[in-house]
Amino acid sequence: MRHYHYYSNISLGFSSIIPGLLLAQVIGSLPISPGSLIAYESSLTYFYTLFGVQVHAALIITLLYRFFTFWLPIPIGLILYRNLQR
Questions:
Q1: Residue 4: pLDDT above 80?
Q2: What local confidence, expressed as pLDDT, does residue 5 receive?
Q3: How far apart, in whole angstroms, are the C-alpha atoms of residue 21 and residue 80?
Q4: Nearest to 48 by CA among 8, 84, 15
Q5: pLDDT tier, 56 (very low <50, low <70, confident <90, very high otherwise)
Q6: From CA 65, how far away is CA 69, in angstroms rounded?
Q7: pLDDT exceeds 60 at position 66
Q8: Taking each helix axis from N to C terminus, what angle separates 39-50 and 55-66, rounded to the nearest 10 degrees?
Q9: Cβ-count burial of 49 within 10 angstroms (0-12 exposed, 13-18 middle, 19+ buried)?
Q10: DSSP label at 9?
Q11: How far apart are CA 50 and CA 20, in angstroms?
Q12: What is the DSSP annotation of 37-61?
């Protein structure tokens, strides 16, 4: 009988985080789409898997990073901008 573990220990050091982010920034700077949508996420996930992170963990890390650095500031900036106009 197989036992499946639904948790994973993810160890990702700075020696993998920084090069992955920098390489994804290079891909993201290419004028493929506005905000480098899809290109940035796919390249960041690819580079993290290249550095040994499991695919599901790399995808979760990428989506959380992109949410906090790209999508979350948009409504916050809109609210602050409207408050500034008053």
A1: no
A2: 52
A3: 29
A4: 15
A5: confident
A6: 6
A7: yes
A8: 140
A9: middle
A10: -
A11: 9
A12: TTHHHHHHHHHHHHTT--HHHHHHH
Would you state the pLDDT for residue 2? 57
For the record, the structure tokens of 36 come out as: 């480098």
pTM: 0.73
Cβ neighbours of residue 43 under 8 Å, at least 6 residues apart? 23, 24, 27, 28
- d(CA 6, CA 11) in angstroms, rounded, equals 16
Whether the CB-CB separation of 62 and 43 falls below 8 Å is answered with: no
Q: Which residue has the higher pLDDT, 34 or 61?
A: 61
Q: How far apart (Å, rounded) are the C-alpha atoms in residues 67 and 61?
A: 10
User: Distance between CA 14 and CA 21 in Å, rounded?
Assistant: 10
